[in-house]
Amino acid sequence: MAEAIRVSALTKHYGQLQVLRGIDCAVADSEVVCVIGPSGSGKSTLLRCLNGLEAASSGQVLVHGVPVHDPATDLDQLRTEIGMVFQRFNLFPHKTVLENITLAPGVVRRLTASAARDRAELLLRKVGVLDKRDAYPNRLSGGQQQRVAIARALAMQPRIMLFDEPTSSLDPEMVGEVLAVMQTLGEEGMTMVVVTHEMAFARRVADRVLFLDQGQLVEEGTPADLFDQPQEARTQRFLSKVL
Amino acid sequence: MEPVLWFGWFRADIIAEYGELFWRGLGMTIGVTLICIVQGSLLGLLVGLARLADARHNPAKLLCRVLLRWPASIYVSFFRGTPLFVQILLIHFAVLPLLVNPVDGLIVAGDAARELKQNYGALVSGVLALTLNAGAYISEIFRAGIQSIDRGQIEAARSLGLSFPRTIYHVVLPQAFRRMLPPLGNNAIALLKDSSLISAIGLAELAYAARTVAGAYSRYWEPYLTISLMYWLLTLALAYGVRRLEIRYGRGDTR
Lengths: 243, 255
Known about the structure:
The complex is a heterodimer.
Chain A: E1 3-14, E2 17-28, E3 32-36, H1 43-50, E4 58-63, E5 66-67, H2 75-79, E6 82-85, H3 97-107, H4 113-127, H5 142-154, E7 160-164, H6 172-187, E8 191-195, H7 199-205, E9 208-213, E10 216-221, H8 223-228, H9 233-242
Parallel strand pairs in A: 3-8, 3-9, 6-7, 7-8
Antiparallel strand pairs in A: 1-2, 1-4, 4-5, 9-10
Chain B: E1 5-6, E2 10-11, H1 12-17, H2 19-52, H3 60-81, H4 84-99, H5 111-147, H6 151-159, H7 164-194, H8 206-217, H9 221-248
Helix pairs in contact in B: 2-3, 2-5, 2-8, 3-5, 4-5, 5-7, 6-7, 7-9, 8-9
């Protein structure tokens, strides 16, 4: 399988604070990788380094062979290939659901208004929020907002999707609807990197799980291996607390 | 004209006699205010953005600081830290003669300069001073408005591939504008009232009209009460307009 993402010797520090201490990992095309670990372990920072939202201190990230942290790279172009979904949804509050989704395809991809609209409605049907297309985000539940955010990212037809704790700010009864959309996406062959605390989701959907602790990639493996036979003491300690 | 007394003391005939002066003064006040609101807002937007300019890598990072942030800060500090009245005098009597001068004007010279100064000198100086002053205050409103937008909004837009300018235009400014409307409205009202200071350099606006009438008749209640009411009506109209805009741009607001 072709390689979608390759991370080599990636470090990140804020002043004295070392957040990532040399991460090496790779994600293949169509692979679903879940990143787990305690809070403050650097999971989100790693994810945000993948599309250049966070600048790396040293090391390299290649996305389909393009060096993300090279000043010569056109990050705007690269980001059209990488969708991202945030913990706090970050929908644009001054735009309707439909406008949220059609903005980037119209402005960046230069789609006509009707083409962007058709695509948006298709995606809204897919994530099950079509009936809210003309509502403003503040009228939607958290679960609906997050599904709209997923549709918004998909509207750029990215080759990779990044999820930064997509269910962490949801009420428990809404977690399922968002995870279901993500599972469908993974089954359709989308390359996905998911930072999550949903161990059941990771076990069910992930092809591979990475365990991060204190800025280091401690262990990685298939869900079966990592959850049932963790090799490292730190992994065992973490899993015993969350499972 | 026979004296016309209202309520036994208000000489309405004086106002009527100088009616045209008041109407023209009103037109001038409104015109100057509108021009300065528009120009001040554009200037304020540019300066506000300049004060926020930054880049990821050197040398662009250094250039942003030295060529954009520093000059913008000095400009804002000066125009907020000195009296508007002094700024008007400085611009009219010191800066303008430097730029527009029959002998060696830097921008306009010769007969054109003489004509311009004669007919429009006070207008040009007044509009320039008021615009520069308003731009400094408005830039702070823009800066605060832009900075108040959640970082997540910018990250979401950038992650969709929108460039920084497009993010500012499509995502940040529309949201910031909603929050900036009340302070911008206050600023517009202040500008309207401050335009009366330009009468000091001889621009025939409302306050100038009142002064002319007061000088001619040595009566003060009539002209100053009249223009007070006119200013009051204008500020009420402005406040109403701003409130309408707030309602219109309040869509999707969480409140």
